[in-house]
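Recall that a protein's primary structure is simply its ordered list of amino acids. Everything else, from secondary elements to tertiary packing, is in principle encoded there. The following example makes that idea concrete.
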Amino acid sequence: MTEGRHARVCVDAMGGDYAPREVLEGVARALEADPVLEIVLTGPEDVIIPFAADHERVTPHPTTQVILMDEHPASAVRSKGDSSIVVGCRLVREGQADAFFSAGSTGACMAAATLVMGRITGVTRPAIATIVPTPTTPAILLDVGANADCKPEHLVAFAHMGIAYAQTVLALTEPAVGLLNIGEEPTKGSALAIEAHSLMHASVPGFSGNVEGGEVLSGAVDVIVTDGFTGNVALKLLEGTSSTLLGQVKEAMTSSFIRRMAAGVLAPSLKSMKARLDPETYGGAPLLGVKGVCIIGHGSSKARAVAAGVGVAAQAVRGGLTERIASAIGQNGS
C-alpha cells in the first residue's frame, strides 16, 4: 500500500453478508498493513465502540439504522438518514472522512454517494469501474452496472474517468483506451457504439479503437469502456467463467493421488493464477464521478476483500482521484 498523504477512510461496519465480523477483521488487517491509515467506523455503537477501543487510529461514529440488501435503494437512502451507508457518505461530504467503503447494497451505496456526496461538476452519470486481470497489468472495465442506458457522450466521460482511475491506482501515465464492441471497425456495432467511437476518437487521449469481447482479458488496452448493461453482463460472465474454471482445475488436480502429487508441484503457479482471477484481490469497485472516493465491495466480501477495498480507497485518496477526474472532465467538457 502506498503511504504518504493522509487518508481517513470511513467504513460501513454493517455492509455485506458477513458483517460485522469480517468487516472488522478486514479493517484490522488494513490498519496493520498501513501504519498511517485512519479509519472512521459507522454502525451500531455496541459493534463499533468496543472495536475502536481496542484499535488505535479508529474513530467510532455510531448510527442507529442499517440498509438491508433487499430494500429499494433510493427509498432506503431517503428514509434512513441515520444508516451506516448514508452517514458514511455524509462524513465524506463534510470532510470528516476522505473516502467511504461498504460491502453493503450496491444500489444504496450508489444512491447515497450520488445524493449525499453529490456529483463532480460536469459529470451527469457516475460510473462503476472494476479491475479485471490480464497476463500483464490489470485493466479497468467501466461502466459495470450504474447506467443501463447511456448516450455516446456518457461513454466519453466514462473514458476520461477510467483514465484518471488507471493513472491513480495502476500508476499508468498514458493508459490505452478501448471501446467494447462487436468488431474492430469504426462502423461496427450499435448506433451508440458507432457515435461513441467517433466522439472518443476526437477527444479521448490514448483511444485505441474498438475492443471485442475476446480481448477484454488480453491486455490490449488498459481501460475498456461500455454502457452499464453490457459491462455488467461482461463482468458477471468473467466472474462465472473464472469460478467454474478454477473449480474444474481443483477437481482435476485432486481426483487421484498422482494428480495431488502433481498439484503440489504446480501449487505456486496455481495460487498465482487464482489470485489474479479472484475478485477479492482487488477489494471493491469505485463509483467514479462523485465528490469523494466511494469504493463498493462485493456483498460476499470477507476480511481479505475488505482490507483490499480499504487499501484501494486510501490509495485513491493519496493519488488525488477525485481531483484528477474533476480536472479531466473540466478540461474536456464531457
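The chain has two domains: 1-123+289-320, 150-279. DSSP finds eleven helices and eleven strands in the chain.
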